[in-house]
């Protein structure tokens, strides 16, 4: 039955909602964008439903062809009950029962997962981790989070929060994190933490290469400028990069030894920066992971890259069908 079916995906971001129509093979028929800039869910959700219906009919399908819808959003949320509780990037969205509203609006099953889980599922069904029974996806941009596949299933945990690896404490007593802990992985290695650290360390050093690249404005320091300074051989930047790479290796080593994955897919930094990002992590990894576990684990940049938002919700929908026994990987062959 799923051979003919289509899937609807929603990726709810802080300024836009992406709607996409695809199928279980990863074919994307089309998509739409809805503004969600300081908007109320009462305005946005009806548009999500109408745009999805429009895409379905525009591509020659009927709502009877829609097997499921999937919703991807960042936290905080009650994923088990399908409720966006207080997403940090949408100030008017509070305790929104998104899964039920979408299911009722479209008349099909709806599934809701956090963005890191959806990225994992997207790379698992359609991208770099296809076919892996044990895999990890690490989002690596503003923050760091993970989606984890173990023994062929997405792991969700007691309260649906598996994968908060960005808040593994790598440096006890280290830099303060917004989460309340100190020394979290993402405080040192993600874009926001790195920007804050560079600003704190360089604001009074206008002659430094990084401050010059930032036109003297410490608030402009970011990962992109850091990469530039590393490529230009600036000693401060090279040193920071080296320290950060070793911490990435520490975190990835912990994950390898804990979960024995066959695939680790790394998000934005890995595919956007390339070897300069990957090589030093791989160099330091033997300090933190067992050789025999590293040998069976392939560490690769994400394949879906900028397109991942189009697959996120569709992957959540497909995983919902998979867990309900209505889809099997044999259908991808
Ligand atoms: Zn933290």
What does this structure look like?
The two termini are 15 Å apart. This protein folds into two domains: 6-123 and 306-332, 2-Layer Sandwich (Nucleotidyltransferase, domain 5), CATH 3.30.420; 130-302, Nucleotidyltransferase, domain 5 (2-Layer Sandwich). It contains twelve helices and ten strands. It is globular. α3 (115-126) packs across α12 (308-323), α7 crosses α8 and α8 (235-259) crosses α10. The mean pLDDT is 95. A hairpin with a 2-residue loop joins β7 (144-150) and β8. The chain has helices at residues 41-58, 98-106, 115-126, 185-189, 191-202, 209-213, 223-231, 235-259, 268-273, 275-284, 291-295, 308-323; strands at residues 6-12, 16-22, 28-35, 66-73, 110-114, 135-140, 144-150, 153-154, 263-266, 298-301. With 333 residues, it is α/β, with parallel strands linked by helices. Strands 3-2-1-4-5 form a five-stranded mixed β-sheet, with helices on both faces. Bound molecules: zinc ion. Zinc ion binds at residues 167, 177, 179, 181, 184.
How many separate domains?
A: 2
Bound molecules: zinc ion
Shape: globular
CATH architecture identity of the largest domain:
2-Layer Sandwich
CATH topological fold name of the largest domain: Nucleotidyltransferase, domain 5
Spatial strand arrangement across the major sheet: 3-2-1-4-5
Strand content: 15-25%
In DSSP terms, counting alpha (H) and pi (I) runs of 4 or more, how many helices?
A: 12
CATH superfamily of the largest domain: ATPase, nucleotide binding domain
The helix content is 25-40%
Helix- and strand-based class?
A: alpha/beta
Q: What is the radius of gyration?
A: 21 Å
Secondary structure tally: strands = 10
Mean pLDDT: 95
């Amino acid at each position: 039955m799923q051979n003919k079916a289509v899937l609807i995906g929603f990726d709810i971001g802080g300024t836009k909602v992406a709607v996409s129509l695809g199928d279980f093979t990863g074919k994307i028929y089309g998509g739409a964008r809805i503004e969600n800039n300081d908007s109320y869910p009462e305005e946005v959700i009806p548009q999500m439903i109408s745009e999805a219906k429009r895409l379905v009919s525009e591509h020659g399908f009927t709502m009877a062809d829609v097997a499921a819808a999937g919703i991807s959003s960042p936290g905080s949320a009650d994923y088990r009950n399908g409720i966006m509780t207080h997403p940090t990037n949408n100030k008017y969205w509070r305790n929104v029962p998104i899964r039920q509203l979408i299911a009722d609006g479209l008349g099909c099953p709806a599934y809701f997962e956090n963005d890191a889980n959806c990225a994992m599922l997207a790379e698992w069904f359609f991208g770099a981790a296809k076919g892996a029974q044990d895999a990890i996806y690490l989002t690596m941009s503003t923050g760091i989070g993970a989606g984890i596949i173990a023994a062929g299933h997405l792991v969700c945990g007691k309260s649906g929060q598996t994968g908060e690896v960005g808040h593994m404490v790598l440096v006890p007593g280290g830099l303060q994190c917004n989460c309340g802990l100190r020394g979290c992985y993402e405080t040192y290695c993600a874009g926001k933490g790195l920007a804050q650290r560079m600003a704190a360390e360089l604001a009074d050093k206008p002659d430094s290469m990084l401050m010059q690249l930032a036109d003297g404005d410490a608030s402009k320091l970011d990962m992109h400028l850091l990469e530039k300074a590393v490529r230009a051989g600036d000693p401060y930047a090279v040193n920071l990069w080296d320290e950060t790479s070793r911490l990435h290796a520490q975190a990835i080593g912990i994950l390898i030894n804990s979960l024995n994955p066959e695939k680790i897919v790394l998000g934005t930094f890995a595919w956007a920066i390339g070897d300069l990002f990957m090589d030093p992590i791989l160099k330091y990894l033997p300090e933190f992971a067992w050789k025999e576990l590293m040998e069976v684990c392939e560490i690769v940049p994400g394949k879906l890259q900028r397109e991942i938002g189009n697959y996120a919700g569709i992957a959540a929908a497909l995983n919902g069908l998979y867990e309900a026994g209505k889809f099997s990987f044999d259908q991808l062959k």
